Amino acid sequence: MTELLEPRAMGQGLVRRDGVAKVRGTATYAFETPAERPAHCALVQATVARGRVTAIDTAAAEALDGVLAVVTVFTAERLASVEDAELAALQTAEVAFRGQVVGLVLAETSETAREAADLVEVTYDEQPHDSELRADRDDLYTPEKVNPGFETDTAEGDVAAAMATAHATVDHTYSTATYHNNPLEPHATTALWDPAGDGFLTLWDSTQGVHPSRATVCQVLGLPQDHVQVVAPHVGGGFGSKGTPHVNVVLAAMAARVLPGRAVKLALTRQQMFSLAGYRTPTIQHVQVAADAEGRLSAIAIDVVEQTSKVKEFAEQTGVPTRMMYASPNRRTTHRLAALDLPVNSWMRAPGECPGMFGPEVALDELAHDLGIDPVELRIRNEPEVDPETGKPWSSRHLVECLREGAERFGWTGRDPRPGVRREGGWLVGTGVASSVYPTMRMADSTALIRFEAGRYAVEIGAADIGTGTWTTLPQIAADALDVPVDDVEVRIGDTRYPIASVAGGSSGLNTWGSAVVEAARAFRGEYGTDPADGDEMETGVDQAAQDEDHAAYAFGAQFVEARVDADTGEIRVPRHLGVFAAGRIVNPRTARSQFVGAMTMGLSMALHENSLLDPRSGHVVNHDLAEYHISVNADVGDLQAHWLDEHDPWVNAMGTKGIGEIGITGAAAAVANAVWHATGVRVRDLPITLDALLPSLP
Amino acid sequence: MKPFDYARPGDVAEAVRVATLPGAVFLGGGTNLVDHLKLGVARPDLVVDVRTLTSREVTDTEDGGLRAGAAVTNSELAADRRVRERYPVLAQALLAGATGQLRNTATTGGNPLQRTRCVYFQDVTTPCNKREPGTGCSAIGGTTRNHAVLGASQACIATHPSDMAVALAALDACVQVLGPTGERTVPFTELHRLPGDDPSRDTVLEQGELITAMGLPPLPAARTSAYRKVRDRASYAFALVSVAAVLDVRDGVVQDVRIALGGVAHKPWRATRAEQALRGGPATPDAFAAAAAEELADARPQPGIDGGNGFKVPLVTRTLVATLRDLTAAQEG
Ligand SMILES: Cc1cc2nc3c(=O)[nH]c(=O)nc-3n(C[C@H](O)[C@H](O)[C@H](O)COP(=O)(O)OP(=O)(O)OC[C@H]3O[C@@H](n4cnc5c(N)ncnc54)[C@H](O)[C@@H]3O)c2cc1C
């Protein structure tokens, strides 16, 4: 148990410290980094999905006025490490997926660079490719682990036997689509090598973590850590796609090395973000649930089929939430992968929990209906006393309270359970519920420095603000840890000049950096007392030994949705969407609300709109821009509310925070699907839910 | 992006003269053309900016109609009181399109000439007969959810994306054109072509022909008209299908009806068969459904890796029935 900080600044809805600069456009993003006479880089991408580059004719490109250099798979420098095949930029003539980078152009302007990239002529020896995910493939394989290190399969008891003898069962296959993270700010880098050629590299990069990014870049380029500086004061979103550097960062560094002393700018186009910056695998989820007449589960199982790129394995942990969510004596979770000739998939907001809380949460809704039990009540009846997977007690678990409070706020009580019977004007109306969950994580590596400077406290840590609010929330934690007003704290983040910080990922950022800041503050006070001298400083890391290992730590939530379906056309609208979360201490309600409602909207988007359409003939996503890849827009979002319980968890960290960036997306799509069923009587098990699935059953 | 020359001629005559050469294109609001320049879909040698040359006014015509200059923006046309009163279907169609920012820029001349949103047309790395004649149609057998069910060919199954154009087709608008050989007027329903074996040509306009204005004929019945656009997302999405309808009903009998369909064909689809079936008949849901069936008798849905577009046939029927039902109710109470 840690000593919880007393919240004074924490809990206040302070406005964003970087807000004014952002609104005025003066906050500098990676691509905008001021540079003298920057050169611009454009990429040449493979137009076949598999094969080998046999020749590249760069003459026309090089002849273009303003072109500074053309680099290809045949001419590129050899990288120090090609262990991570995704990052082995321009190291091989083999093409492993359509859109793979086979060359780059440097030019005086971005227009010239792009035109020259178009003029580069690439000849291929094209090979047949394989890009189709199907559950009935005979070459599905069992990965050793699923992201980031979970068991691939788990089994307890005998699911088949329980299914055979249960009072009620649900046995269906659900699927989620391919999703692309699509942060507003594209992946962009300004790269500069020291002109002296002594191997110092600066990367102004749009990244979720300057230190993790530097570590990777150093490994790929074979540089010592102190030769590389990564700077990222402001990041326009990442949703996981900037959690690890993708090939664009390596390419920017390679391009800049061609012109030492001159900054090189490389921003991916929106289309390129669909092949070079990660995405979420589609999932096929076979879900089985068995229960007695009272709705108590006797079995729950999820068998997941999903894909990975042949370039690099990424096994999304889709089955993991089923391991701990509800009580059940019999349980099975499995993951099988198809390795395809496709770009590398990776983290996207709540990897695992996001897709994994779709199938099972819809299955529970089906079970509730079959049993005539309210779906809120059904979930409450299956509340496990301890973590079913580990047997550990919960650090805190308030799912039931979230369900109850959500039901109360939403007006759930008295809901008519029958589907397809409510009509208001031209609308069929229904409501649905689903649970949310996200594990509470803390990373091992973070250090904060606190220095007393001219009467104020400077806090330095290489943390990231990817729009989440770190610039504002970290000072709140520091202020409480130092017991000073928040205005007396200045925080410096987003630069490897500052002490090491972990990635803004897994909703662990504030948990980790905040813990480091609290440690540093406590050590600072221990050393210098409350009246330090100017220049007194203290640098301390998170105390991993003090990390509680005896409890299962998760944030929980419940989401309620009202769906309306146009009785003429089947168009689906969601006028009400309400979430209640138990996610530990909320450091700043203003920035927290924006995380919750942002993630809930992303879940709505996943339910109704997002769908990367892979054309298996070409092996690429054909709707690769924001006009065709639809995300929910303002008009799709009605009365959207996020609430939270005042939860105090002494086990997670000194702030009592659980992390809030991802939980809102989990369960949201299931709640929408359940509401659409309640409105229409049509059970759609494949995302996205679009009107064509409803049309045949409309009145 | 391929470099091009940019010209801003002094008047429309000069604009037409310089645009006679192949490789020249007109620039309206640029909301479609500029995207295509960046994507490499359009590779002109010369861009002739006509935004300030054509009229930006909506004027009454002697016969009681309206005339909208080609430079009138979509926002301005939608907000014009005369349009809203006399041709609500047009105002509604305009407002159902794109977003406020785009409508503030998009023009009356440019909107009907925007090109298909077929993803393969917009992706220069895939074959497309419309973009590069003779290379084949990638949409056939690909993703077809947004593609045509009427009037498509083996060469192209693209749809025309404009909402405004669907309303103009229903209203029997006419297009005023200035070309190298002088002025001509093209009935709006004849402006766009079916793909046939040359989908590279969207319209009957010849190289160098400039749209100077759009004429709206007097049509009292159009005061009861409506545009219904169906889409997955509530805004900022092209129509899956749409219906523009003008309906004049008295005592339960259809006196006059004009219908055009969007999202179903290479052109805004004037539903003449349905109109014929309805004229003089009862204004009932059954009659509306029968008329829709008549119009869709030749519909050929496309299979597709995304599930195809077979849903468009029932969707058009349902949307048409609903639109006519609501227009009937508006008149007959
Ligand atoms: C994200 C997005 C969403 C959109 N959503 C919708 C929607 O929902 N519904 C909808 O209807 N539209 C939608 N649009 C399209 C928009 O309406 C068109 O881009 C716009 O109307 C085109 O008008 P413009 O003046 O900008 O044309 P431009 O881009 O300037 O030109 C389009 C074409 O017309 C030619 N041209 C322009 N003016 C003339 C003239 N006077 N004479 C002859 N040729 C001319 C050009 O050479 C070019 O070929 C959307 C666009 C975007 C980018």
Automatic annotation (TrEMBL), chain A:
Residues 24-128 form the Aldehyde oxidase/xanthine dehydrogenase a/b hammerhead domain. One of its GO terms (molecular function) is iron ion binding. The keyword Oxidoreductase applies. Keywords: Molybdenum, Oxidoreductase. InterPro entries: Ald_Oxase/Xan_DH_a/b, Ald_Oxase/Xan_DH_a/b_sf, Ald_Oxase/xanthine_DH-like, AldOxase/xan_DH_MoCoBD1, AldOxase/xan_DH_MoCoBD2, AldOxase/xan_DH_Mopterin-bd_sf. Signal peptide: none annotated. Pfam families: Ald_Xan_dh_C, MoCoBD_1, MoCoBD_2. PANTHER family: ALDEHYDE OXIDASE 1-RELATED, XANTHINE DEHYDROGENASE. This is Xanthine dehydrogenase family protein molybdopterin-binding subunit. The lineage of its organism: Bacteria, Bacillati, Actinomycetota, Actinomycetes, Geodermatophilales.
From TrEMBL, chain B:
InterPro entries: CO_DH_flav_C (IPR005107), CO_DH_flav_C_dom_sf (IPR036683), Diverse_Substr_Oxidored (IPR051312), FAD-bd_PCMH (IPR016166), FAD-bd_PCMH-like_sf (IPR036318), FAD-bd_PCMH_sub1 (IPR016167), FAD-bd_PCMH_sub2 (IPR016169), Mopterin_DH_FAD-bd (IPR002346). GO terms for molecular function: FAD binding; oxidoreductase activity. PROSITE patterns: FAD_PCMH. It holds the Pfam family CO_deh_flav_C. Keywords: Oxidoreductase. Signal peptide: none annotated. This is Xanthine dehydrogenase family protein subunit M. It comes from Goekera deserti.
